[in-house]
Specification:
Helix content: 40-55%
CATH topology of the largest domain: Rossmann fold
CATH superfamily of the largest domain: P-loop containing nucleotide triphosphate hydrolases
Number of strands: 16
Shape: globular
Distance between the termini: 43 Å
Strand content: 5-15%
Strand order of the largest sheet: 2-1-3-4-5
Number of domains: 4
Radius of gyration: 23 Å
CATH class of the largest domain: Alpha Beta
Length: 459
């Protein structure tokens, strides 16, 4: 097995360096950090990292200076720029000057990880790559499982999802994954790809909400030289780069109407027209899309095209939130703790009984991603190999139960109060059966889940 790519993170804020280092290390990369641009150039010369993640605005040496130096001395290295003052023009200029990506601060952790993963897919392997021991497939983080390996989970809701996945993976049908943030949509997308006949071809992904419209369209469809200021050469888009593989469009609900029209053409005609061109180019990647929005509600309010929704919604999979698959919490926790044990050494990690009970009772609004982050924090704070309750985040430790319906109603109830009481009345009459409750209420199950979470009644 080839070594994980080395990533050098350069910034003039130590807090950002520490955060990104921990994040990338937990994702299987080999991260190093440098405080400031001058130190960054020294580290580049010493480490020869495959991926460089650098802030743009630093007092000594800027990220653009680092980009120029890297392009001159190590053209195989991949450079990702970070900035809190992004503009479309500067983003396009940076990309055309050789930057792999241009990400705006503040960014989401999963957004940054997705970009670094894409950079790792495009990098050229070094001849002196270090060997690395193969991880345990049974406990590997499902986001980095070998293609086709089964994601962690034994609860009925999760097994129902996997059964549907296995029945559709061998087809070329478009799949729409719906669910709250952190429920594992990319995990499932990679599982579908790994079990398909396209598994030997690329799996590419993009977060549709991470880029401004103009740059997103250039990334998706490509552009031709001279199509806009800064377009100094032709560039192939990600649909073309995916080839015969799978292209994962995460957060597709964040796209603008103009981009939606072009995505509709891809699905209908199996072709793209690069920005600035009039000639269509055929594409053949399978499309898997994901969203944490209720697209049917977005259609009603005019935020999403109904024709694109029906093209995407050929096969729809609703991923359950973690609070509806509580039987999987111990399995997921054991997975993350075993990985943390292997990384830090010093023996196996485990939770004490109060910590296990608190995690089982907590509602996990951030789902599996929140669970992983909570355990990462706990591992850092725990003094021994047994993680106590007090090492968990305060929101989990101090979780208090709340009665579903209160006896005393307010004198002038709001619409939210009335809706909350009615939903809970139907839910209790249906014996806690959420799909049946949604049917009685005449709403989609995902809408019901969001309302329960909104009112703090998701347990």
């Amino acid at each position: 097995m080839t070594a994980p790519p080395t990533v050098l993170v350069i910034d003039d804020e130590m807090g950002i360096l520490d955060t990104i280092r921990i994040l990338l290390k937990n994702e299987g990369f080999t991260p190093y950090t440098a405080l400031g641009g001058k130190k960054g150039l020294e580290q580049i010369a010493a480490l020869k990292p495959e991926i460089i993640l650098t802030d743009v605005r630093m007092p000594d040496v800027t990220g653009l200076d680092i980009l120029a130096s890297v392009r001159a001395h190590d053209p195989d290295a991949v450079v990702i720029l970070m900035t809190a003052q992004a503009s479309l023009q500067s983003a396009i200029g940076a990309v055309n000057n050789g930057a792999f990506y241009y990400i705006q601060k503040p960014f989401k952790n999963d957004e940054l990880v997705t970009i670094v993963r894409r950079a790792a897919q495009r990098r050229k392997p070094r001849a002196d790559a270090r060997p690395v021991a193969a991880p345990s497939a049974a406990r590997e983080d499902s986001r980095r499982l070998p293609q086709g390996a089964r994601p962690v989970g034994e609860s009925k809701p999760w097994l129902d999802v996997l059964a549907l996945v296995e029945s559709v993976a061998g087809t070329d049908s478009t799949v729409l994954l719906q669910g709250e943030s952190g429920t594992g949509k990319e995990v499932v997308a990679r599982y579908i790809h790994g079990r398909s006949k396209r598994a030997s071809n690329p799996f590419l992904s993009i977060n549709c909400g991470a880029l401004p419209e103009g740059l997103l369209e250039s990334e998706l469809f490509g552009h031709v030289k001279g199509s806009f200021t800064g377009a100094v050469k032709d560039k192939a888009g990600l649909f073309a780069a995916a080839g015969e593989g799978t292209f994962f469009l995460d957060e597709i609900g964040e796209t603008t109407p103009a981009t939606q029209v072009k995505l509709l053409r891809v699905l209908q005609q199996k072709e793209v027209i690069p920005v600035g061109s009039t000639e269509a180019q055929p594409v053949n990647a399978r499309v898997i899309a994901a969203t944490n929005r209720d697209l049917e509600q977005e259609i009603k309010r005019g935020g999403f095209r109904s024709d694109l929704f029906y093209r995407l919604n050929v096969i729809s999979l609703a991923l359950p939130p973690l609070r509806d698959r509580r039987a999987d919490i111990p399995l997921l926790a054991a997975t993350f703790l075993e990985r943390a044990s292997a990384q830090r050494g010093g023996g196996a990690l485990s939770l004490d009984e109060p910590a296990r009970a608190a995690m089982q009772e907590y509602s996990w609004p951030g789902n599996v991603r929140e669970l992983e982050n909570a355990l990462e924090r706990a591992v850092i704070l725990a003094k021994g190999n047994v993680i106590p309750l007090e090492a968990l985040p305060e929101r989990i430790v101090e979780r208090k139960s709340e009665p579903l319906i209160k006896d005393a109603a307010p004198a002038n109830p709001t619409l939210d109060t009335i809706e909350r009481a009615y939903i809970m009345w139907v839910l209790e009459n249906e014996g806690g059966n959420k799909p049946r409750t949604a049917e009685v209420l005449g709403i989609d199950p995902s809408t019901l889940y969001r309302k329960l979470s909104r009112y703090g009644l998701d347990t």
